[in-house]
Amino acid sequence: MKKLILLLILICSIQGKAQFGKDPIINLENWDKQRVYWGYYLGMSYYDFKFEYKNAGKDILVDNGIGFNVGLIGNLRLTESFDLRFEPGLTFNQRNLTFPDFPNENDALREVKSTYLHFPLLLKFSADRTGNIRPFIIGGLSTALNLSSNVNNKQDNANNVFRMAKWTNFYEVGLGIDVYLEYFKFTPSLRGVFSFNDELVRDNDPNSPWTGNVGSMKTRGIFLNFTFQ
What we know:
Layout: H1 2-19, E1 36-53, E2 61-64, E3 66-77, E4 82-86, E5 89-98, H2 105-108, E6 109-126, E7 133-146, E8 167-180, E9 185-195, E10 214-228
Antiparallel strand pairs: 1-3, 1-10, 2-5, 3-4, 3-5, 4-6, 5-6, 6-7, 7-8, 8-9, 9-10
């Protein structure tokens, strides 16, 4: 994840050097005066789980992977500095869980593949534009449909089936920089997403060695998105 953050800083630095200077040519001067405009984004995601336990013991280990995001953007201008944004998208990710106290690796390991339909509603606050760049902060709420939840599967971890809730609610906070190029606006941004609700569907056996001691399991993650408008 440090590499992703360094990449964002590097991109912002390069763009800043290109756009700052004496009397730069102002690109897309009236772009932000539009009432409504559209765009799309591509990016990477890094998902983790935050576990809480009923009793003290060994932690469940989470091996995180880098996922892929793609989606659309609808932007409604509220004032000169505030915008309301709807950013529906699709996110693919995999997390591997290793449960303690299992001598057999097949029993200990669970591959959690997640395909989320993500529906964020966000409020964006932008600073004053300087030349061809404009930094902003953004935050809001979202809900996501996990298409890989297995929630309706009657089998559980005893049959190597890991189950999660179908719907998850998040709050999101982030920052980024709008870069006004000659023909379009390019925006690198970094955002954290944090689940409100417990996503774990317990096994049929209340004393299950996989889920019996879990108080809650919540997703948290980081999105690095590149937006084109």
